[in-house]
Amino acid sequence: MERPLDAALQRLAETDVLLVALDFDGNISVHVDDPQAAGPLPEAAEAIEALSALNRTSVALVSGRAIDSLIAVSGAGDHILLAGSHGAEYRMEVGAPPLSLTADELADVERLGAILREVASRHPGTAVETKPAGHALHLRNADDDVALDAQHDVRRRVLASLPGVTARPGKDVEEFSVMAATKGDAIERIRAYVDASATFYSGDDVTDEDAFRALHDGDVGVKVGPGDTLAPFRVPAPTDMALVLTRLAELRAAFVRSR
Ligand SMILES: [Mg+2]
């Protein structure tokens, strides 16, 4: 691990109340062709369990996945806080009401689905994922030229029919939602919920930039993989992120024991 990152982790580990917030896919899990076959790297899962067991330390997963999908692939127990659908859905308070949409919003979700299914039917290898507040068109398994054509097609059609929806272009995915929530909103909300004095965040995709933007002085942001980022630190791959989390868990455990 590079020395500046290690030094930042040492400072972070000595904060009063620590929030460790993590993107899931491509961050603590490797991207796979079948999204339902994803799972956390064992070393990352171990570090998450170790961190969440420590006093005044909380772990949250902040994902574009719907909460149900996130629970299924992450195996996250109730001690892990969850933000799904890019901050439109949460699992924090026990018994909290599920996401509720207005009749107009539900109608827009339906219309989005119809547009995306129509585009997918003409572009082999693309697939539609239904979420509580929107739909996503997955391009990962389509040939490059087909994916590019589907991307242009779906953006044009959604913009023409549903100009009020939020578009979230990602890695090999075009997502649209009737809710404008971002991962930055998720960071704000979870930070306030646990009353964190400092936050760690890591992620690999474009939508993670909203979360990096929401970080304060003294927080630590780590981008995984290539691409422009606001994060001050970067590691190449999820296996490296697992090492970062293992190191943070060691440092935090030592600090919690010492006070
Ligand atoms: Mg990701």
Automatic annotation (TrEMBL):
Give the pathway annotation.
Glycan biosynthesis; trehalose biosynthesis
Question: What SUPFAM superfamilies does the annotation carry?
Answer: HAD-like (SSF56784)
Q: Which UniProt keywords apply?
A: Hydrolase, Magnesium, Metal-binding
InterPro entries, from UniProt?
HAD-like_sf (IPR036412), HAD_sf (IPR023214), OTSB-like (IPR044651), Trehalose_PPase (IPR003337)
- Note whether Kinase occurs among the keywords: no
Q: Does the keyword Hydrolase apply?
A: yes
List GO molecular-function terms, semicolon-separated. metal ion binding; trehalose-phosphatase activity
Lineage, top-rank taxon, reads Bacteria
Write out the function statement from the record.
Removes the phosphate from trehalose 6-phosphate to produce free trehalose.
Q: What protein is this chain from?
A: Trehalose 6-phosphate phosphatase
Which species is this record about?
Labedella endophytica
